[in-house]
Design a protein that fits this description.
Number of strands: 0
Order of helices and strands: HH
Strand content: under 5%
Structural class: mainly alpha
Largest sheet: none
Length: 98
């Protein structure tokens, strides 16, 4: 009788490598979704700030609009920084350099 593939010494270890790889892929996708959420929030905040500046005459709303603009840029930058840091961390774990 011949041996079936997936049995023997390499079977459980290979299965664990595949499981670890799929976990890393899921983590990468979750990181990308989080990055896109940061960017979506930044764009929405910027649009709200521009709307307050352009279409409202009340001074408090205009000031709020001007405050929202740099907050939106900061949020976009923060999302990019967190994305890069997490991506590097995921790559280190995947390569076994924890």
């Amino acid at each position: 009788m011949g041996e079936t593939s997936g049995t023997g010494a390499d079977g459980p270890q290979e299965k664990r490598r595949i499981t670890d790889h799929l976990a890393a892929v899921r983590s990468i996708l979750a990181n990308e979704r989080t990055f896109l959420a940061y960017q979506r929030t930044a764009v929405t905040t910027f649009a709200a700030g521009a709307t307050f500046i352009r279409f409202f005459d009340h001074p408090a709303l205009v000031v709020l609009g001007w405050l929202l603009l740099p907050c939106s840029v900061l949020r976009a930058w923060l999302g990019a920084v967190r994305y890069r840091r997490m991506r590097q961390r995921i790559e280190r774990v995947e390569n076994g350099v924890v």
